Amino acid sequence: MAGVLPRPMDRTDPIVDIGPDPQSFSFPNAMSQASQPASLIDRLTGVPVIPVLEFGSIDEALRVSEALVAGGLPVLEITLRTAVALDAIREVAAALPQACVGAGTVLTVDQLHAVRDAGAQFAVSPGLTSTLAGAARNAGVPLLPGVATPSEAMAALEAGYTFLKFFPAEANGGVPVLKAWHGPLSQLRFCPTGGIDAARAPSYLALPNVVCVGGSWVVPKDAVAAGDWPRIRSLAEEAAKLSRT
């Protein structure tokens, strides 16, 4: 494939590459090493918003996740930022088989293996190291790695990834940056995350190189504290329509 660009992708194309060669970010056959699990791709295709979640209890995780899925957002990213995160992934995955439960804030190989064992169907990292990239290829769980610069995006591409998390999106220039990247990095597609809300999301989703966005606005802290699950479901319903607006 050296010197040959892949066909242009659109929003219905697969959005998770399971990837990299365990040796390095930089080797000529990196792109040929990537493979894509069809069942996961089918679950993620066409989802405009991935809720980024942080839970304080298992009950909270179950109630919020039920509301989101009922509202039309079946792909969930449960971040490893609390002591209950792994148990939350396990319980939500078991209770909501119709959902696609992923793990966020995966920083180490041990965490990658732990979320896989807990039942996560994909993992999200704020960045990408050679160690994590090497482990991800054989871990049995697809990785969505984060990038913030063109150099990081190029390194991820060499490692076999064509779908990346742009993070933190707003702090790194947001829509204008991703628009500018589309020409020189036309092989890549992104899930921008960080600082995105209902008002900003449509501008991202209108870009040809954006597949979906990640955000926490669909789960307001005050709604969780009040147990206002109908409000969370309503926000999910609004977010699920964004790609069609």
Automatic annotation (TrEMBL):
CDD domains named in the record: KDPG_aldolase
Cleaved signal peptide residues: none
Protein EC: 4.1.2.14
Molecular function per GO: 2-dehydro-3-deoxy-phosphogluconate aldolase activity
Superkingdom as given in the UniProt entry: Bacteria
Enzyme class: lyase
Pathway(s): Carbohydrate acid metabolism; 2-dehydro-3-deoxy-D-gluconate degradation; D-glyceraldehyde 3-phosphate and pyruvate from 2-dehydro-3-deoxy-D-gluconate: step 2/2
Keyword Lyase among record annotations: yes
Keyword field contains Phosphoprotein: no
The family this protein is said to belong to: Belongs to the KHG/KDPG aldolase family.
Protein name, entry field: 2-dehydro-3-deoxy-phosphogluconate aldolase
Organism, scientific name: Cupriavidus gilardii J11
